[in-house]
Amino acid sequence: MNRIRISGVGCCLLDRIYDHVDFQSETFRKYLSKKAGDGGLEPGKLTFEEELEHFAGQSFASDILPLLTEGRAPQKENIGGPCIVALINASQIAFKESLVSFYGCRGDDGVGEELLQKLEQTKLDLSHYRIQRDSETASTSVLSDPNYDNGHGERTFVNTIGASWHYLPEEVDDSFYDSDICVFGSTALVPRIHGGLCAMLKKAKAKGRITVVNTVYDFLSEKEHPGERWPMGESDESYQYIDLLLVDHEEALRLSGCCDIPSAIAFFREKGTGAVLVTNGAHNVHLWANSPLFGKVKEQTMPVSEAVGKALKQGRKGDSTGCGDNFAGGVIGSLAKQISEGLHSSLNLKEACRWGIVSGGFACFYYGGTYLEQKEGEKLSYLQELYDKYLKQEGVC
Ligand SMILES: Nc1ncnc2c1ncn2[C@@H]1O[C@H](COP(=O)(O)OP(=O)(O)OP(=O)(O)O)[C@@H](O)[C@H]1O
Ligand SMILES: [Mg+2]
After folding, report:
1. Does 231 contact ligand 1 (Cβ within 6 A)?
2. pTM for the predicted model, two decimal places
């Protein structure tokens, strides 16, 4: 059997989690934002390392971070970034049917080594994962205060784009465009790729590939033009080359400039997108399609997994990091399975969405975005169980 080739370009980073950072402490408050967009820290939000350094006049790595964490090492280090997390889940679901490759770059530092060592525990093809000399590997420092907001807890993120600033569309070689499915994952965090997104999508479509875009909060656009609608890459022309757009509720509204999901879907449709899935945490998923690839799927909603909600209520532990990224991976993995079954010209969007829903739900059962398997097929067997329950759930068609 020929394996279905899935190739993804976009964000891959190391999440470094620092627990028990006191957001009320004098040290933390020193770095708090005074006015929107000034580069200071904001609980619940992401700040770029460069901007925080500019705000504070200090180095993040050698001054600010050691002060905030009292010199402690991170409690956990996980593979993060919506592109890589989605690809890993897709490779776990379609482990028999697919070959999944990641295109991106890392720095030649300790963070990069750490990340690579974790990635080598997955089935991903990393032969297109380059090293950029003299640069830092992208990372997110996740500062967590479990006591913040009367014990509800909150996290504050500091993102280092690092080597990802230097990764260019020209470095994505032809093998990417020779894949069955071309995934563009959270390219807003790989600025040059995002700036060439439309051209890359166009090239993939010209070769007859299936194009999937999963998005991330576009912090750079937001910083440059606060409150304005975010463009899709270099221009909204990109939409006409997207077969399937995967967005969360907030991204759908910010990309479309609309106030509700039906209007946002109408916006994406008018711009030429083939199909759209919009997630919203524990709320229903919205879906719509009208394209040769998926046929006509009227705008509708699908519930999330009740089995997941029930387990969480019963105290099953984990966090919601990477739910959306795993949702995207579930969808992509299902598409690969469908293609391998010979369904190339009429893919089933609802079936793909079901695998997204159980994958996003399963991500609530562990900490961080990526589940590293002990053996092949391990995660699929858990997901299959959730999938079987989901099919019996009321309201699921
Ligand atoms: N509490 C929950 N119960 C059941 N399923 C959930 C829950 N939270 C998330 N999910 C599943 O995960 C999917 C994606 O979640 P969500 O919309 O929060 O993604 P996101 O905002 O992109 O998250 P992130 O960017 O952190 O990965 C949901 O559509 C749902 O299927
Ligand atoms: Mg997301």
Report:
1. no
2. 0.95
List the chain domain ranges. Answer: 4-13+81-141+165-392
Check if 320 has its Cβ closer than 6 Å to any atom of ligand 1: yes
Region 226-252: what's the mean pLDDT? Answer: 96
- In this predicted structure, the answer to whether residue 277 has a pLDDT above a threshold of 70 is yes
Nearest atom in ligand 1 to the alpha carbon of residue 308 is: 4
Domain topology for 4-13+81-141+165-392? UDP-N-acetylmuramoyl-L-alanine:D-glutamate ligase (3.40.1190)
Q: What percent of the chain has pLDDT over 70?
A: 99
- Find the angle CA(70)-CA(76)-CA(81) to the nearest 5 degrees: 115
Q: How far apart are the first and last CA of the chain?
A: 31
Provide CB contacts within 8 A for 298, sequence distance 6+. Answer: 288
Q: What angle do CA 311, 369, 286 make, to 5 degrees?
A: 70
Distance 214 CA to ligand 2 centre (A): 8
- State in Å: Cα 65 to ligand 2 middle: 26
Report how far ligand 1's centroid is from the alpha carbon of 360 (Å).
5
pLDDT digits (tens, 9 = 90+) for 141-199: 999 998 998 888 889 999 999 999 999 999 999 999 999 999 999 999 999 999 999 99
